[in-house]
Design brief:
Length: 249
């Protein structure tokens, strides 16, 4: 018998929950560790649609990257994701910044999509730095990143060709200046960059690419399923059907 607690402990061995940032909310966020599981859904986000998908496939547990409960709940709104989890009896384990930092976790999956080799841990443990298969002009690197991640990108061209790149998934704009100061990669890529961060980063002379929070982290859903299925071969792991929470015109 496999339980939600067993899945939690396997994730803790791979991406220790105590390495998450102090502001984060990770771990078993819904349900009991004793909940027996035979079908598990993996996802980037636990939305109402994700819970409905899990319920339709008779899953007992959802493992996600983003926490289903982040800020304190003041009311349990009917139809919300936490409400649907409770109503459906589905447990939830969320691995966020601990999975970003983990060797073989989100940022390594991102680096692999860009074919960075080797992808070395850099900075505060979140970032990765590696070498591209070939040198590229800044505009070509931005287009290449979009092709690899399946999205449109925003970018600022740097002063040299791009052979090395530093990456940080999600809202990593605040990590990139420190990464550049320590590693001096030719390009910097993340999911979200705020206006003042754009100003700081473009002044460095590096090529800077913003590829979107969703597209730099959606690999987590497939990565979690693949990683956990090796540890639990008798469990059915299903990847949720997800789309970006926005449209691009």
């Amino acid at each position: 018998m496999t339980t939600a607690g067993d899945i939690y402990r396997a994730l803790d061995a791979f991406a220790p929950f105590d390495t998450a940032e102090s502001w984060d909310n990770v771990g078993l966020l819904a349900g009991s560790p004793e909940r027996e599981v035979s079908t598990v859904v993996t996802a980037l986000d636990i939305t109402p649609a994700t819970v409905d998908f899990a319920a339709a496939h008779h899953a007992e547990l959802i493992v996600s990257h983003h926490p289903v409960i982040f800020s304190p709940l003041r009311r349990l709104e009917e139809g919300s994701a936490p409400w649907r989890l409770a109503a459906s009896g589905i447990a939830a384990v969320c691995a966020h910044t601990n999975l970003d930092k983990a060797a073989g976790g989100v940022n390594d999956w991102l680096a692999a999509r860009l074919r960075l080799s080797p992808a070395e841990i850099a900075g505060d443990g979140l970032c990765r730095v590696g070498t591209l298969p070939e040198a590229m002009e800044p505009e070509r690197f931005a287009a290449y990143a979009g092709e690899c991640l399946g999205c449109q990108v925003r970018f600022s061209p740097g002063v040299c060709r791009v052979r090395t790149a530093g990456v940080c998934s999600g809202a990593g704009g605040d990590c990139l200046s420190a990464l550049w100061e320590k590693q001096h990669p030719d390009a910097l890529l993340t999911g979200e960059i705020r206006h003042h961060e754009w100003l700081e980063l473009t002044a460095l002379g590096a090529t800077v690419v913003e590829a979107g929070h969703y597209h730099t982290e959606i690999a987590a859903a497939q990565g979690l399923a693949e990683r956990l299925s090796v540890r639990f071969p008798d469990i059915c792991f299903m990847v949720a059907e997800e789309q970006p929470p926005y449209q691009v015109l």
